[in-house]
Amino acid sequence: MKIGVLLIGLLAIGQATAQELLCPETGIPMSQDPGCMTPNYNEGAGNQQTPPAYGYDYVPPPPPDDGWVDTYGAVAFGIKPGQGPFYWFAGSNRSSEEANSQALGACSRDGAQGCMLGGTALNGFLGVATSDDGSLFASYAGREDSVDFAAIGKCKYEGHKEGCRFLKAQNFSRRRK
Question: Is 136 within 8 Å of 129 (Cβ atoms)?
Answer without folding.
Answer: yes
